[in-house]
Fold this sequence. Notes:
Blueprint: E1 8-12, H1 18-24, E2 29-34, E3 41-42, E4 55-60, H2 70-80, E5 81-89
Parallel strand pairs: 1-2, 1-4, 2-3, 4-5
Amino acid sequence: MSDGEGQKILEIGPGLEAFGKLLKKHSIKYLSVDLFSESDIRMDAMTLGFRNDVFDSVICIFVLEYLEDDRSAIQEIYRVLKPGNGHHPSGLEPPIEGDQRMAI
């Protein structure tokens, strides 16, 4: 694979899906979730309905600060990430103690 081709990327709170439009042009498997706005799947970031270790990367920009329980959302992000991969957050987030997958 080159240039991320075949990677699975999840975006939480995609807004206008600017990342999605760009990533889909590069044969990257992109999926967006949001509880209130347009997305591929309507889903709560605090209880993501995916198996463990599914995504190569998670994008979450200007979302966590609006959630009732941002810590649960962060834990869910790490749960669905494949080991050794990262998530791309925005805003201030406390690291989860003992988690080595933080990629900030």
